[in-house]
Amino acid sequence: MPAVIPLLVFWLGPLGYIFYLSFTDWDFMSPDKLFVGWDNYRYLLGNPEFYQALKVTGLFGLGSVIPIMVGGLLLALLMNSKLRTSGIYRAFIFSPWVTPTVAVSIVWSWIFQPDVGYANHVLSWFGVAGIGWLQDSNWALIAVLIVTLWKSVGWAMIFYLVALRNLPSDLLEAASIDGANAWSKFRHITLPLISPTTFFLAVILTIQSLQAYDQINVMTQGGPAGSTRTLLYLYYQSAFEAFNVGEASSVAVVIILICVLLSGCSFLIGRKMVHYQ
Amino acid sequence: MLRYVMLTIISLMMAFPFYWMVMSGFKTNDEIFRFPPTFWPETFLWSNYVDAWHAAPFARYILNSIGVGAAISLLQIINSSMMAYALTHMRFRLKGLFTGVVLLGYMIPSTAVYLPSYLVLSKLQLLDSYTGLILSNCVSVFSIFLIRQAFMQISHELVEAGQLDGASHFRILWTIITPLARSTFAVMVLITFIEQYNNYFWPMLITKSPDLQLVSAGLRSFFVEGGAYGLKWPQIMAASAFTIAPLLILFLFTQKTIMQSVNMSAGVNKN
C-alpha cells in the first residue's frame, strides 16, 4: 500500500502539524518554536483584517457558487432539447474550464483595464461611465467573480446536462397529459429530480471557492484595500510573505473548521432534502 | 430558433477572451492602448509571438509542465489503483479507517495544509526539485474515489477466480481488473494531467529556480517581472496564447472523454 505513505506524509501529518503550529510563534528562521497557547487565535479574533477576510470569503462563496449553479442550470436547459449543433456550443462554453487560470486571468485583467479595457468599452455602448474594476475596492471582487463564473459555468452545465438527460421521460409526459405547464413541470418534477446534482455542485463549488487563489493572485493580490483578500489569501500572505507561521496556521485551522462545518451541514441537508430515485 | 441565437451569443461571449488574447498578440503597443479598442488588428505583427517566445524560456516551461503532469498522472494511476483495489477487493482490519481518511481528504482542501506540507518538503530536502513536486502530488483522493467507483463494478468472482488460480494480488490487479477499467483510467489521466498542467499555487511555492518553473508560474513571472507589466501587453497576450494552446488542442481531441469525466465524478459523490 504505497499510496498510504504519501497520504500520511503530505496529508494527515501536515494536518496534525498545522494544529500544533497554530499554537506557536514560529517565523521560519528561529531554531525553537515557542509555545504561545491561544495567543494566535486571540490575535486573530481581535484583528479587523481577519473579519474582513472572513467577509470576503463569504461573499466570494455566495457570489461564485450561486451564479455558477444557476447559470449552469439555465445553460443546460437551453441546450437540452435536441439541437443538432449542441456539441459545438458545449465545447465553446466548457473550454474555459480546461485552460490555466493564470493565463486567462492575465487576459481578463486587460479586459478590465479602466482606460482601454473592453469591459468599459461595452459599458460605454449603454452610456454607462467606465468603472475602475480592479483598482476600485467596490468592484474588484465582482471582477474576480466574473472571471470565476466564466471559468466554471460550463463545468456546472455539463453536470446538469447529464442530470437532465437521465430524467424519466414518462413522468414528464404524464404531467403534460395532466395539463401541467412548463413552469410547474420544472418546479415539481425536474427540480426535485436533479436535486442530487444540485447538492453535489453546491458542496464541490463551495470547497472550490474556499480554495480560490490563482485568479486573485494574478488580478488583485488581495487588494485594493483587502477587498479581495479571502481567508486563503490571508493565510498565504501571512505564511509566505510575512513569515508568521503561527498566525498563518491559525488562519488555516479556521479554514479547516469551516470545511468540516460545511461538510457536516451538507451531510445533514443531504439526508433530508435530496431525492434520490 | 431563439435558442440558437441565445446559445450563439453566449458561446461567443465565452470565447471572446480567447479571441481577444490571440488578436491582441498581433497588435502594436500603440494599437493595444487605443480606446475604443479595435476588434481586428490593423497589421498582423507575427513578430510579437516570436519575441514573446524568446523573451522567456516558454518552450522549457511548457515541456516542464507536460513532463511533470505526465509523471504525476502515471504515479497516480499506480497508487490509486492499488489503493482502490485494497478498498474494494481485499479484506483487512483497518479498511474502515482508510476509507475514513480518504473521505476526510475529500472534504478538506489541500491548500489549507500547504504550509506544513511545505515544511515537510523542506525537512526532506526536496524543495526546489521535481522529486518534491511529483511526490507530494502522487496520490489524489479524487483519483482514488474515481478508480474505486470503477473497481466496485467489477464482480468479486473474477478476483476469486484469480485467487483460485494462485495469482497474487498484483497479478490480479494488473492483468484482470485494470484492463476492465480502461475508460475510467483514461478519464482520470486526462483530468489529472489538465489539473497539473494548470497547477500554479503549489508548484510556485516549491520550485523557485527559473529552470524548474512550470508554465503558469513562468507566465506569471513574465507578466510581472522584466518590465513587461503594463508595457509589453502584446507580448503578454501572445505568451498567454501559447500557454493555453496545448490544452485547447488536447481538449479538441479528447472532448468526449473529458466531458464524460463529469458524469463519473458525479457518480463518485453518490457513495
UniProtKB/TrEMBL annotation, chain A:
One GO term describing the cellular component: plasma membrane
Q: Tell me one Pfam family matched here.
A: BPD_transp_1
* Membrane topology, record value: Multi-pass membrane protein
Q: Biological process GO terms, please?
A: transmembrane transport
Where would one find the signal peptide in this protein?
none
**Which parts of the sequence belong to the ABC transmembrane type-1 domain?**
54-266
UniProt KW DNA-binding keyword: no
Question: Where does it reside?
Answer: Cell membrane
Q: Which Gene3D superfamilies does its entry note?
A: MetI-like
Which positions, given as ranges, span the membrane? 7-23, 59-79, 91-111, 141-163, 248-269
Which UniProt keywords are listed?
A: Cell membrane, Membrane, Transmembrane, Transmembrane helix, Transport
Q: Give the protein family.
A: Belongs to the binding-protein-dependent transport system permease family.
Annotated protein name in UniProt: ABC transporter
TrEMBL record, chain B:
Q: Topologically, how does it sit relative to the membrane?
A: Multi-pass membrane protein
A single GO BP: transmembrane transport
GO CC annotations on file: plasma membrane
- Name the predominant localization: membrane
Where would I find the ABC transmembrane type-1 domain in this sequence? 62-254
Q: Where in the cell is it found?
A: Cell membrane
Keyword set, alphabetical order: Cell membrane, Membrane, Transmembrane, Transmembrane helix, Transport
| Domain of life where this protein originates | Bacteria
User: Zinc as a keyword?
Assistant: no
Q: Where are the transmembrane segments?
A: 7-26, 61-85, 97-121, 133-151, 172-194, 236-254
Q: Which Pfam family is one of those matched by this entry?
A: BPD_transp_1
Signal peptide residue numbers: none
UniProt family annotation:
Belongs to the binding-protein-dependent transport system permease family.
Protein name (database record): ABC transporter permease
Per the UniProt record, the source organism is: Paenibacillus bovis
